Structures are given as structure tokens and as C-alpha cells.
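During the second half of the funding period, the structural biology subgroup turned its attention to how the target accommodates small molecules. The most pressing case was nicotinamide-adenine-dinucleotide, which had performed well in the primary screen but for which no bound structure existed. We therefore specified the complex as follows and requested a full 3D prediction, including the ligand pose.
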Amino acid sequence: MLDLPVRLLLIEDNPLHRRLIQQLLTADPQLQCEVEAVERLADGLARLARNDVDLVLLDLVLPDSQELETLLRVRLAAPQVPVVILTSLDDVKLAARAVESGAYDYLVKSNLKSTALSRSIRYTLSRARARGGEWDSPMFRLAQQQFLKAAQYMDLDDNIRQRLLFPQRTQVVSFPFFRDDRSQVETVFGYRVQHVLSMGPTKGGIRYHQDVDLGEVAALAMWMTWKCALMKLPFGGAKGGVRVDPTSLSKRELQRLTRRYTAEIIDIIGPDRDIPAPDMGTDEQVMAWLMDTYSQQVGHAVPAVVTGKPVVLGGSLGRKEATGRGLVYLIKASAEHLGLDLSGASAVVQGFGNVGSYTARFLAEAGVKLVGVSDVSTGLFNPNGLSVDALLAHVAEHRVLAGFPDAEAISNQELLELDCDVLALAALQNQVTVENADRLKCRLLAEGANGPTMLEADDILFERGIFVLPDILGNAGGVTVSYFEWVQGIQNLTWTLEEINARLQTILLDAFHRTLKRAGENHIDMRTAALIEGVSRVTEAKLLRGVFP
Ligand code: NAD
């Protein structure tokens, strides 16, 4: 519920528009608000300094300030106050850019109705409140901004836009587990977020990391929705996570934590409800414990409740290496499109876990020279090439890359800026930013990780002509083979590795060519094109299903 009345500041220089908006605001009895109107930005900023405004309705073109600068000055003066942009028809592009820069919504003045205006205000205020808490994460903001950018390009129905901005179902749990020293009980936070329930069961990995929060999990769930839709898989997006440093846990602690987390979310998962899989900090063994805990609770074995489990428990051949394998299929297709000969080309891979190590291995098999690699412990550089087998052997013995003898140690930041043909990101979010996007020297940026590139950096990469394989396309090999695992599980049959890899390649290349075609036809970047492909499919399904009741 909103605290009433809502205190609105209207910054608008056109007297006709000012009167119209004030009339619309008073026409909705459900929206009790006090409106103060000013004509100039300077007056608006002075008003904001009193610190008692709940929301700003802002015209961007004012006598004393123009375009995005108007928004930036308001945000600087009152970063906590949400802003809704008022725009005229010929300024919609500018308004969309304003949303990318932090405005909550935009409204076109010429055909504005009272219901649309008050809904936008109510929704903005509740989003602003939600952001203040657990949802407030740079990753969730990034996912929402990317979605809004695609929505603007595709002229997405306003009702759908608002419905897709937040996940449909969210479970937050706090639960205990015993440390090996039985006197110590640790309490941690866990999450499971289901973004869209309209497409079939939901699907998405489980992440164990010390920085996990609701916003991060929600962002990952949203990306899963677009990814599954882009691949034409019958799933909505989900994601789970536990805020814990998995490297600080013994194997027994990891097992107890996993079993208790599974018990906490058991009501909302299941082979026809929501199917988890591995993500950062979790692996086949964690999926085996999850499947066992679920099966114990329901009284019989249910392998199809998770994917990415060991083959002997009903896992699929090829799942473990699927994300890296898929990324390399797409790198090959991109290289062909760019006229880049991969044999003898150079690559740098950030991250050397599941995705990074298999990406490095398949790149090496394609004749690519690996000149840089990194993990949480260090970056490594060797212009003459690094041996993937030697790196794997070192990690098997020492757990991390640090101390690898046959290379120069560099920082992760230096690694990103190495001269190379292919830069594959397979670690964390938020790696390519407005600060370093200008200094990247690769021709092809391949995103195995989720959310590694910030929105503003995307624009810079596009202008510089760096070809980007965006995450929802680049790392979709994982969920695609997870889908194969689920299909095999519910039908009790198995496919050969050759069948799996062939089907994987067909699905990925189909999505790649659809995305490339859309990007070319609409003169947009690959990420926005991939998002539009995914969002269009979800929109079609949502419109066909309608609103209950
Ligand atoms: P993982 O836990 O197996 O490996 C993560 C790697 O990143 C490790 O080598 C770790 O040392 C490194 N790392 C962590 N912090 C780092 C830092 N600050 N700087 C540099 N390296 C750092 O995880 P994963 O499953 O390989 O996932 C990696 C990324 O790929 C994540 O963004 C994940 O969401 C995404 N992804 C994974 C899958 C999958 O099937 N596993 C599928 C799709 C997307």
C-alpha cells in the first residue's frame, strides 16, 4: 500500500500540458496526490532540496535545461526520488534513452489517459520501494534496462512491459546448517525466483556465492526467460541462489547446506514446475544431493527434478561441457560471419571454471591460440600460447590458477585489455564497463557469463564495431542440453553424445542466424536483437493466454 497522499512534483513548462496533467491526476479518485507544478528546472531543484517529494514528473525540454541533462541534474539533486518522463510523440527516442539512464518510465503526453498516468505512478512508487531493499542490485537494474531498451525498439505493449519487468514468483528463505564443528550453526539466505510462468515449467541454475541477493537472482531469472524463448525451449526463466562462499565450506557442509536449501524450496520445484541446474559455485554433485533430497521427500526417485546431474543418475551425456561447447559453436559461426580464420587466431578467456575451462579446451581444439586466462586467484598471459591440459592439471592439483609456472601473472583488468581476436567472458557480471570498453582490443566478445557487459558499454562496443555474442545467446548451450536431459528423463530414454551435440548445434545456429538477421535488418546491436527475439515469443504466449480471471 502507498502512503497517501503522494507528493508529486511536476516540472513542465508548457501551461497547456501542465493543466492537462493536473486534471488527469485529480480525475482518478484512487490516486490521492498533492501536486506542485514548476516551469523551470532551477525551481524544481530548489523544491527537491526540501526532501519531501515522492515522485517527479519531468519534461526533458525546459527553458533552462535540455534533453538528458535535465534528467541527470534531477537525479544528481535527488537520487532517491523516482522520475517519470513526460514526452511528446517526436521525443520518444529521447525518453527511452532517459529510461536507460535511470528514469522509471515515460509517458507520451498527446494520448495520455488518467488510468495510464496513475498506474504508472503507482507502479513506479512500488518499484522504487522494492529497489530500496533486497531488489536493489546493479545486475537487476541492468536486466531491466536491457529489457526496456528492447521494449522501446519493438514498441512493446505497455501492459506486457509492466508485467515482465518483475518476476512472477519469489521465494526468500533464511535457514540454518551445521558446520563440521557441531557447536556452530550458520544461518544463510537463499532465494528461488521464477520470472515467467506462462511458457511451461520454469528453468534455471542455482548459484552459491557470497554476493548473491534477491536482485541478482531476479536478473538471472529474467535472462533465463529470454534465453529459453530465444532457443524456443518450452520453459520460463528461473534462478536460485544461496548467499554463501562455497570455497569456505567442507564437502559435508556443502551437502548439509544443499539438502536444507532444497527442503526450503521444495514446494515450488518439481519436474513439471521448476527444474534447477548448476550455476556458479554448484556442480553435478550438488545436483545429485538436490535430487536425492527431493526424492526422499516424495518417496520415490525423481531424476527429472534437476538437470546437470551425474550421468549415472539420469544426467545427459554432454551436459557438463555444453555451455562451453555451445559458446565455441557460436564463436565459429561468428568468425565465419566476420571472415576471421580461427586456426591461428588468438583468444583470451576470463574464468576457468565449468564454462571457461571447456571454452578454452574447445577453442584450442579449433586451432585457436590461448594467450590469456584467469580465475579468481590471478590472470595469466603467455603470447606464445598456454597449454589447456597443463592449466587443467595445475587446477586439479592446486584448485586455482595462481602459481602456474609457464606464464606471466597479470590482473583480471589487464587480461580484459589484452590484444586478441576472441575475448570470452566466463566468470562474473559487470566486467566490461564504460571505463574499459574503449580499451578492449578483441574483434569478437563472446559472453559465456551472465551480465558481463554494462548497458553503456554496449553502445561503445557497437560504435567500435566489436562483434558481441550476447549472454542469452552465447551461454544458451547449457540450458539447451539441460532441456535434452529433462526430455530424456521424463521419457526414460537416452540419446548418444553425437545426437546431443548435433541437436545442440542446430538449435544454437538457428537462434544465431535469426538474431544476426534481425540485428542487420534493424541496424541494432546483437544483444537487443536477441532480446527482441526472446521477448516477442514470450509476449505472443502471454497475449494468447490472457489475464486470469
Ligand atoms: P564456476 O563456479 O564453475 O567458475 C567460475 C570461474 O570464475 C572460476 O574459475 C572462478 O575462479 C572465476 N572467478 C570468480 N570470481 C572471479 C573474479 N573476480 N575474477 C575472475 N575470475 C573469477 O562457474 P560457471 O558455471 O563456469 O559459471 C561462470 C559464468 O557462466 C556465470 O556467470 C554463470 O552464470 C554463467 N553460466 C554458467 C552455465 C553453466 O552451465 N555452468 C550456463 C550458463 C551461464
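Two results from this model are relevant to the next phase. The chain has a mean pLDDT of 94. The pocket of nicotinamide-adenine-dinucleotide is lined by residues 278-281, 323, 350-356, 374-376, 412, 426-428, 448-450, 475, 478 (CB under 6 Å).
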